[in-house]
């Protein structure tokens, strides 16, 4: 069974880097604290609990189908970061997000019972995205971040926000079959 993914159109493609324009979408997100792996696990569990039925509906089924990707980004820091966000042992505040299936509106989406979950409606957005496979580790993250930053500089793009990590596959997927992306909003 195919997993729903957000709609986008490719504006520019240069190897494994793309500029994409995403259609408006609704996301469920939660803020968590910890290193990359801890925060990823905590955030996923809270959001999975919500979509698997820990919610309130006025009618119909309270279960929400899983979509891809699961997005994760560090909350902005007030000081300049000198290490990659995945640095071993670094605790940080993270935002973990699930994209809601496209058939829902803010009015029809079940309401989370967990008050730490926020539901947001996002307007059309444009991102620079690099696609890669494998496990997300500090070395692969740093390499892909450098390539993405080089592309942004070469194309003279202006960015906003933090780099998001988008993962499309369940944890049991073999590393070479995994699809990951680093993405940053461009104006």
Account of the protein in words:
The chain has 187 residues and is α+β, with helices and mostly antiparallel strands. It contains two helices and eleven strands, in the order βββαββββββαββ. It has helices spanning 36-51, 138-154, and strands at residues 8-14, 17-22, 25-34, 55-56, 70-74, 92-99, 111-112, 117-122, 125-132, 159-167, 180-186. The strands form two sheets. A nine-stranded antiparallel β-sheet has the order 1-2-9-11-10-5-6-3-8, with helices on one face. Strands 4-7 form a two-stranded antiparallel ribbon. A hairpin with a 2-residue loop joins strand 1 and strand 2 (17-22). The model is unreliable at 79-84 (pLDDT under 50).
């Amino acid at each position: 069974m195919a997993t729903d993914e957000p709609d986008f159109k490719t504006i520019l493609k240069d190897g494994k880097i793309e500029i994409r324009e995403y259609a408006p979408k609704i996301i469920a997100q939660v803020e968590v604290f910890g290193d990359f792996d801890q925060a990823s696990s905590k955030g996923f569990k809270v959001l999975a609990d919500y979509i698997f039925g820990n919610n309130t509906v006025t009618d119909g089924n309270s279960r929400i189908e899983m979509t891809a990707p699961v997005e994760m980004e560090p909350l902005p820091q007030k000081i300049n970061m000198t290490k990659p966000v995945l640095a071993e042992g670094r605790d940080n505040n993270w935002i973990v997000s699930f994209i809601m299936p496209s058939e829902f509106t803010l009015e029809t989406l079940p309401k989370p019972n967990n008050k730490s979950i926020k539901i947001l409606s996002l307007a059309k957005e444009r991102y620079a995205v690099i696609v890669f496979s494998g496990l997300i580790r500090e070395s692969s993250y740093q390499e892909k971040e450098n390539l993405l930053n080089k592309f942004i500089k070469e194309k003279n793009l202006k960015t906003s926000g933090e780099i998001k990590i988008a993962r499309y596959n369940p944890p049991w997927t073999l590393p070479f079959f995994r699809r990951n992306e680093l993405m940053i909003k461009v104006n």
